[in-house]
Amino acid sequence: MFTPGRGTHYLFFKNRWVQVNRERQNQTIKKDGMTRTALEVVSLTTFGGNPTFWKSFLENAAKDALSQLETGLCVYIPHGNSWQRLGAPRNKRPIDSVILDIGVKERLLDDISNFFTSQQWYIDRGIPYRRGYLLHGPPGTGKSSFISALAALYGHNICMLSLSDRLIDDAMLNHLMHNAPLNSFLVIEDVDSAFGGRHDGVIQHNPVYDGLSRVTMSGLLNAVDGVASAEGGRVLFMTTNHVERLDAALIRPGRVDVSQHFGNCTPIMFEQMFKRFFANVPDTLCSKFRDKMLSIDIECSPATIQGHLLNFKKQPELAIENVGKLKE
User: Fold this and answer.
1) What is the pLDDT of residues 237-285, one digit of tens each?
2) Domain final residue pick, 242, 261, 280
3) Would you call 194 exposed, middle or buried from its count of C-beta atoms within 10 A (0-12, 13-18, 19+)?
4) What distance, in Å, lies between the first and last C-alpha atoms of the chain?
5) Could you tell me if 253 and 275 lie in one domain?
6) How many CB atoms lie within 10 A of CB 204?
7) What is the reported pTM?
8) Which three-class secondary structure string do you get for 28-82?
9) Per residue in 85-112, pLDDT tens?
10) C-beta separation of 81 from 169 below 8 A
11) How many domains does the chain have?
12) Of 35, 81, 257, which is closest to residue 173 (Cα–Cα)?
């Protein structure tokens, strides 16, 4: 997809020429305590004053944008006080391609499906209509992959927030969470990375974390479920590799409604991943791969197994024979 550069451009729509002018203003907005960014204005001009032309023009533009959502997954990141799409829409990942332990995927799918069909139930009881999920476990266990596949399943966008982003403070975090694009999952990955931990009820100070974030713990808590926090069906996912480092106040019920552990591969996951890569192999070969993995007795994440199988994507027998290399 191409966007017009600064200056004047022309396009033809429904037998009319439309002038597109993109210019940078002298006025700026503050992105953080030190940096300012210039405002940009895009103006559209054509001959004639019939408002139905512009209505048709905007409807066509909206239809084109929605068609991209149908064919791809859009990821957004903060840009100043708004959201900016990160590159072109990505290929949608099938939910079946994310291999998790028995019951994990089903539990999460059932919960979010129930949430999306219960808006009136929340309203009738005066409960804020929002849902929070904490996905925790070792690296490479499918946390981010599951979120991407779930967004694709529901035709949602993904809005990525990094608490270690020096351009984001408490007020900006709250503003961004209130103004995410429609039909979006808000995602805070590695939520533990910006703060120290809590031990025996006392917040631990660690100089390693100094200066990493302008977002405070109280600011994050207020953005997640304070009086001014976003509602309207907001779905927030937080991920961490170290759940033990998280402040207990952050993961209490009401802020985190569902906490789900994502673990390393189990025997059934070995079989399912092998079958996913080599769809036409007999079940006996899947069992052989499982047994071979169990024989080397090491913890393997789904990402590790995927990397191994990619090396032998057309050679299932060699994938089994070379399992021992995972110990090297």
Assistant:
1) 999 999 999 999 999 998 999 999 999 999 999 999 999 999 999 999 9
2) 261
3) buried
4) 44
5) no
6) 13
7) 0.80
8) EEECCCCCEEEEEEEEEECCCCCHHHHHHHHHHHHHHHHHHHHHCECEEEEECCE
9) 998 889 999 999 999 999 999 999 999 9
10) no
11) 3
12) 81
